[in-house]
């Protein structure tokens, strides 16, 4: 393999693992926010448990890994091999599309983390790939609806699940919460809280296992596609073992980091939650996510978990739901796909304009610079395990990460507690 192509491949692998890492800390709240909010688990214990189970879950299945890229973009043929017209330069054209899409996804993950918004890492990845593919191959490069024989493409794999999964999770969690409080109506409140905290530990653990099973595979699929395109892997229906290990470790490390901003929003900002509600929400999320993984359906765990938490508030009489926070979440969900697509397309244009290895390196440098700026900005309002459960305070806005994003930030700015500011 030419040295230039090898370096580009290594950049793709490193960027894919970086996306997996952001996926981990971005989605920790999906599993552990309710357990941390109710005190069922201490914050550091919760993220450690979630990280270990994400690690294990990543090895349980490869169904999603084998379908994730072909679900939304036409980079592969019917049997999973890269399209021949993308391999004329040794696969460098395909690698540039994948690299650009990954960078777009990471940038959106980091931006929504900075704003404390639980957006979908899955949709960020799909959006980044779609945008880079449109820029590189045109509209025809995107698999919009599939062949019509089954739910597929952007509509079937992304848009419809985004609309349906939160609704299903809200209904399941709402009914479950109502049943829990109906059955335990005569029980002493302290005993009920104590018992359901143990139940929360089990159900939250199941979500973490399911998250590793579902989300880590998406990165496995992207890396495997890059390896096939460059001739470094030939099995179209299997994932190299080292890829499984690398992706599992990356998502576990990201999960352990915590993603405290998003944990706080889900645990304290959306619903006033107690242990019975938390267990009902976690059990509902785990059931929906595990079912989707078994069917090879690349579902957004964020949409499911948020819907379940919201449902737990609706299912309990007298519970408070913060509809302002819920509205900001919905807005971020709506713009995730187009925002990540725009970022992916811009990255491809930069890489294509500069060309070859220099273009790929430029994209990678842009990613490092933007990530560093957002991290430094986050230090102005630190949220970690020590203040993640502080009382939620409205009308205190989070700092805006970049001047260029002021207008968007104004639309979805999210309140942060005064006690969390450095």
Automatic annotation (TrEMBL):
<protein>
    <recommendedName>
        <fullName>Phosphate transporter</fullName>
    </recommendedName>
</protein>
<keyword id="KW-0592">Phosphate transport</keyword>
<feature type="transmembrane region" description="Helical">
    <location>
        <begin position="158"/>
        <end position="181"/>
    </location>
</feature>
<dbReference type="InterPro" id="IPR001204">
    <property type="entry name" value="Phos_transporter"/>
</dbReference>
<keyword id="KW-0812">Transmembrane</keyword>
<dbReference type="GO" id="GO:0035435">
    <property type="term" value="P:phosphate ion transmembrane transport"/>
</dbReference>
<keyword id="KW-0813">Transport</keyword>
<feature type="transmembrane region" description="Helical">
    <location>
        <begin position="51"/>
        <end position="73"/>
    </location>
</feature>
<feature type="transmembrane region" description="Helical">
    <location>
        <begin position="330"/>
        <end position="350"/>
    </location>
</feature>
<feature type="transmembrane region" description="Helical">
    <location>
        <begin position="241"/>
        <end position="260"/>
    </location>
</feature>
<feature type="transmembrane region" description="Helical">
    <location>
        <begin position="123"/>
        <end position="146"/>
    </location>
</feature>
<dbReference type="GO" id="GO:0016020">
    <property type="term" value="C:membrane"/>
</dbReference>
<dbReference type="GO" id="GO:0005315">
    <property type="term" value="F:phosphate transmembrane transporter activity"/>
</dbReference>
<feature type="transmembrane region" description="Helical">
    <location>
        <begin position="356"/>
        <end position="376"/>
    </location>
</feature>
<dbReference type="Pfam" id="PF01384">
    <property type="entry name" value="PHO4"/>
</dbReference>
<keyword id="KW-0472">Membrane</keyword>
<keyword id="KW-1133">Transmembrane helix</keyword>
<comment type="similarity">
    <text>Belongs to the inorganic phosphate transporter (PiT) (TC 2.A.20) family.</text>
</comment>
<feature type="transmembrane region" description="Helical">
    <location>
        <begin position="94"/>
        <end position="117"/>
    </location>
</feature>
